[in-house]
Structure formats: structure tokens, C-alpha cells
Amino acid sequence: MNFASSRPLPYALEDRTGSNTHSDFDDMYDRMFFHIARRPGHAATYIYEMPIRASRHRSSLPLNREPSAVLEFLPDESLGNVTFVGKGSLPATTIPMSRYLRKTSLFGTSLARKFVGSDGREYKWSYQAVGDQQWSCTTNDNYFVAHYDLKPSDVRTYDVSGNTLTIYEPFAHLALEIMVSFIIMRHLAEHHL
Fold this sequence. Notes:
Blueprint (H helix, E strand, L loop, with lengths): L10 E5 L7 E5 L5 E6 L5 E7 L3 H7 L8 E4 L8 E4 L8 E4 H4 L1 E2 L8 E5 L5 E6 L7 E5 L4 E6 L13 E5 L7 H16 L3
Antiparallel strand pairs: 1-2, 1-13, 2-3, 3-4, 4-5, 5-6, 6-7, 8-9, 9-10, 10-11, 11-12, 12-13
């Protein structure tokens, strides 16, 4: 009996550096790749959907392509605008980050926020809300969409941070939106916003 075909594999994106402003997220099965970059002296973070894994594009693929999304933070690192450049099913859109990724309650923590995906459904990010996951993204009815896990302290890594963003296959069509909202959530935590 072939069990591999009965359950789709989630996308396990290895976070190569652990940095929120310069890293690559490469699926361990070579199906999906993202490059995150910030130009020195600028407050904008660029998210690129890449055709190949980071270790292969360093010497062979210059980054002279248009980003898929741009996160424009203000000079004091507070929230600015998010721009989806308009690739695939996402139309070109610019929206204030505070409107795109809203707090789940008026007086609640800044580290629990929700966004409406391009499929019209609402998704929620939470910080350290589930088990050992640092970040969890769920649907309104609490189905897991994605989660970010830190490397266990007893595990050795080579050339990667050991941290992993997992996106479940039924939500792969939202991968860019998941990545954008995840980077904003990490920015909120990093800058205590």
C-alpha cells in the first residue's frame, strides 16, 4: 500500500538565516522558494518568489527581478504599507499593514492578528499559542494553515538556521500571503510594536 499518495506533504520551508530582513525559505522537497531582502539604509523589506533554491541561485541567478510583495516600514520601524505587486491570482494592491493584518481584539496583544486571504477566508496568526510552535496560523474554525518552529537546541544544523515555516498543502495557494503576514508578525515581535 502506498501511503505517500494518500496524504499530501506539507511545504517545509527551511529558514536559512533566521533573520527577518535577509533570508531564504526553501522547501525541503524543492517545490517552493522565497527570498527575503532589505536594501542597506532602507526600511522596506522585499519578498521574492524564486524559481530555485537559495543555495543554487547565489552564483547563477542575479536578483534583478521584480519582488512579489514589498513591506514598507516607516523609518522608526513602525508599520507602513504592504504592496502585492500583482502576480498570479493576487491583483496589484497597496494597503496599510494595520488594515491588512488587524489585531484579533481591541485591547489584545499585538502578536495575535488576523488577515483576509485572497480566497475571502479569515486567517489568524498567534505567538506561542500552540505547543512548541513559535508562530501558528489557523483558520477561524481552528484548522492549521501554517506554523513556524524554532530549531530544537539539541539538533545540529549546517548552512541553515534550523527554523522551519510549514505551510499545509491545502493552503499552498496562499503561500505568498502567508509569507507576507508572517514576516510582518515577526517584525511586530522583533520591534515590540
